[in-house]
Amino acid sequence: MPRILICDDEEGILRYLSKLLKTQGYAVETFSSGTALLARLAVTSMEPVDLLLQDVRLPDINGIDILKQVHQLRPEMPVVVMTAHGTVDDAVHAIRLGAYDYVLKPFPKEKIMGVLAKALEHHRLADENRRLREELQRGGDDSSIVFSSPRFREVYDLTLQVASSEANILILGESGTGKELIARTVHANSGRREHGFVSLNCAALSDSLLESQLFGHLRGAFTGAIMNQKGLLEEADGGTLFLDEIGDVSPTIQAKLLRVIQEKEFIPIGSTKPRTVDVRFVAATNRDLQLEVAEGRFREDLYYRLNVISLTLPPLRERPEDIEPLARHFVRRFAARMKKELHGIDPDALLCMSRYHWPGNVRELENVIERAVILAQGTQLTSDLLPVCSRTAPLRNDEVTPLVSLDTLERQHILGVYRQTGFHKSKTAEILGISRKTLDRKLQEYKAE
């Protein structure tokens, strides 16, 4: 969850904002002085911070001086300043120094939440672009796509086949199936990989903000436009623009996107001069766009412009063979990130994960594994660390065996017996009815020795 720091010397403001943001799902830390805030930001080993909400007037350090030091400590972190009517000039000064936006006290709930949502989305986009540039400098890498199922292999092979074309691509699938990862794979294997991959979640923004983000604006184009801003179309020039949740875009924005695709040009807000752009569009949605077209909510001409090639990602429940390799991949990733010695997953945990329906797909699996790694005390991930196991009932006599491969079932059974014998190899081999040499080979394959 996004982590927001709040700095204000008014205790009532801190209590109000802390309660408000926590109810909206944010992690919150509060500070009543600039000194305490800067001390927290100086400790890089603590939880990363996504946004700072700071009063422009503080008793111990001037808010402008704090902003300068914050940019030295965390240059990538957006800052939203709070100010009273009499100190608007200070807020404007803060914006010129790099603050993302400001809000006037007293502020309504809707106002502050709207500004914070925009700032966090801006931070997410900037972070994604930074990570992409790092990947491109390494030559590109799609190794994080993990699968073993024939269903996903078909999609992946088709992805590689169409990536080298210039055709626009529409990616379909439920939320959490990995649509953005496939979009990045398209870009990394295309002739545009040396240029930018820019991602935008269309559902997260209002019409006006979405238009500004896409097309950019000139200074003075609207209230609050204090400087020229380049749009994401220009940022993606020569590269790929990924439009996630394209089904949520309004008819007005649909018409403007259609013009860009057809004419290869757009007009920034506040300008009268068109600008040309060379962008490949990859769009994604979890909606049935054909139904949206039939019911008049999505333009038919835009649908066909985007849907030159379609890739449909199967949900995780329809490719259960991928659950175990994905889970092991996430364990390795999070264990390395958290510097924990985790060497595998308990067979009981694997079995319960294979029985679970995974309505949130790969994203839910990733979140479950991250939580388990955080809580893990031993060297293996066990079922008691997985909340999905408590929601997965044991199989009844009339139920079908979970849809996993024979290799997976064999691995789970061998490791289960091995664990129940207290990791006694001779007893395990005897119970399984196999030789000690065969058991040694299997355990080496499973990396369980």
TrEMBL record:
Q: Record's InterPro entries? A: AAA+_ATPase, AAA_lid_NorR, CheY-like_superfamily, Homeodomain-like_sf, HTH_Fis, P-loop_NTPase, Sig_transdc_resp-reg_receiver, Sigma_54_int
This entry's Gene Ontology molecular function terms read: ATP binding; sequence-specific DNA binding
Q: Does the keyword Secreted apply?
A: no
Localisation per UniProt entry: Cytoplasm
Q: Where are residues bearing 4-aspartylphosphate located in the sequence?
A: D55
Going by the UniProt record, its keywords in alphabetical order are: Activator, ATP-binding, Cytoplasm, DNA-binding, Nitrogen fixation, Nucleotide-binding, Phosphoprotein, Repressor, Transcription, Transcription regulation, Two-component regulatory system
Q: Could you tell me which SUPFAM superfamilies the record lists for this protein?
A: CheY-like, Homeodomain-like, P-loop containing nucleoside triphosphate hydrolases
PANTHER family, A to Z? DNA-BINDING TRANSCRIPTIONAL REGULATOR NTRC (PTHR32071:SF95), TRANSCRIPTIONAL REGULATORY PROTEIN (PTHR32071)
Q: What is this protein called?
A: DNA-binding transcriptional regulator NtrC
Organism of origin: Trichlorobacter lovleyi (strain ATCC BAA-1151 / DSM 17278 / SZ) (Geobacter lovleyi)
Give the source lineage, highest ranks first: Bacteria, Pseudomonadati, Thermodesulfobacteriota, Desulfuromonadia, Geobacterales
